[in-house]
Amino acid sequence: MSFASLGLIDPLLRNLQDLNYQTPTPVQAKAIPAVLSGKDVMGAAQTGTGKTAGFALPLLQRLTQHGPAVSSNRARVLVLVPTRELAEQVLQSFMAYGKGLDLRFLAAYGGVSINPQMMKLRKGVDVLVATPGRLLDLNRQNAVQFDQVQTLVLDEADRMLDLGFARELDAVFAALPAQRQTLLFSATFTDDIRAIAATILRGPVNISVSPPNATASNIKQWVVPVDKRNKPELFMHLVAENNWEHALVFVKTRNGVDYLAAMLDEAGYAVDTIHGDKPQPARLRALERFKTGEVNMLVATDVAARGLDIDDLPLVINVDLPIVAQDYVHRIGRTGRAGASGVAVSLVCADEAPQLAAIEALIRQTLPREEEPGFEAEHRVPQTSATGQIIKKPKKPKKPKAPQAVPGAVQVLNNKPRPQGGENKRKPAAQRAVAAGEGTSPSSGNPFSVRKPRSKPASKPVGGRSKRGP
Ligand code: AMP
Known about the structure:
Elements: H1 10-18, H2 26-36, E1 41-44, H3 51-65, E2 75-80, H4 84-97, E3 105-108, H5 115-122, E4 125-130, H6 132-140, E5 151-154, H7 157-162, H8 166-175, E6 181-186, H9 191-200, E7 205-208, E8 219-225, H10 231-241, E9 247-250, H11 254-266, E10 271-274, H12 280-292, E11 297-300, E12 315-318, H13 325-332, E13 342-348, H14 353-363, H15 429-435
Parallel strand pairs: 1-6, 1-7, 2-4, 2-5, 3-4, 5-6, 8-13, 9-11, 9-12, 10-11, 12-13
This protein binds adenosine monophosphate.
């Protein structure tokens, strides 16, 4: 199948040729004709499937073929996205696919001055890509009105809900013309998303190019169980051991990001970071440097997780698992794109077992575990199942009983608790390991250095060895 056979016009076909897009991806093959015909679309498409071109190409065509010209402070196509980075990226896609067309584009998002965005809106724009909060700000200040909006696109709708944009979305829906085309894309489909779809879509064409909630099969994924405090050393060890030279690294906290970035930097890697506390220009610069290969390692918190379009990324390392299971799918969606094979490795500690179980339930598979010699977890990561269950939850440590001295009786020592416990017995090693388990400790700024060294290491945890990086 060719792009021409989908009914795209020459200027778009030329741009696709320049970009070296030979054949439409499955989501494009389905979405392009549907969007061209003006229908609503509900798309369950994984990141990396080419969904941006799936909606951008036909919308560009409709914009050129159907007037009227846009008035001042108006937009004709409105694309809502969850993050600033994705806004920039979708804008870039529209500009690349629509090169040479007489259309105006703008990305509007928070964290940067609103004035330039207001200025650009004065003339009106054909495509406005926006995050929900900034869009409503602009609307309140009359910088943009919605009466000319002919198409609404919700990109990564599940992520928008995760980020708490439900109210903003409702406000936008209420302000838009009822007569319009609506396209809703989401990598994962929860009940909330279905509820939104039911209220805003009319007779949508359903597009599902892969089982919803599944991760791409061309990505090799595995988990390395490890104690939380040993994550930085294990990370550096794996990177060095495997000669991993180009990776996107996810960490839970900003402190964790800075900590790992400093380690990488010290070890001589070219590294940059993305997190929410960085000013927007610095975040975009970091992404750009990573994309162009100026830096090989990009360490990021979740803000960078979704939708970032990074080609040919062979490796994603989750130093921490995401809190929201869907984010795992989005994170590792950075790799294995457009048919390339990728690798996604996650360092998992005992207190992340619930997250691991949730992820495995979502992707409907149990991730293989591979312990790294020298880094075996003292705090066992409980077994999980693809149904989302933690199979063997570590039991709460029980106090061993003080044997009651019964004159004349032979004292039998076993593991069974007895009615009255003594307090001065050593706990069995496994129980002591669990007693110091990570599940109970609160996380703090730096996820890797919170644990106070225990007075004594457990003598024999499961597969226990001294935990030192090489
Ligand atoms: P997306 O899922 O929209 O983020 O796109 C994923 C990546 O695939 C982007 O880097 C696109 O440039 C690329 N891409 C999209 N469609 C095609 C295509 N038909 N042929 C080759 N690459 C494509």
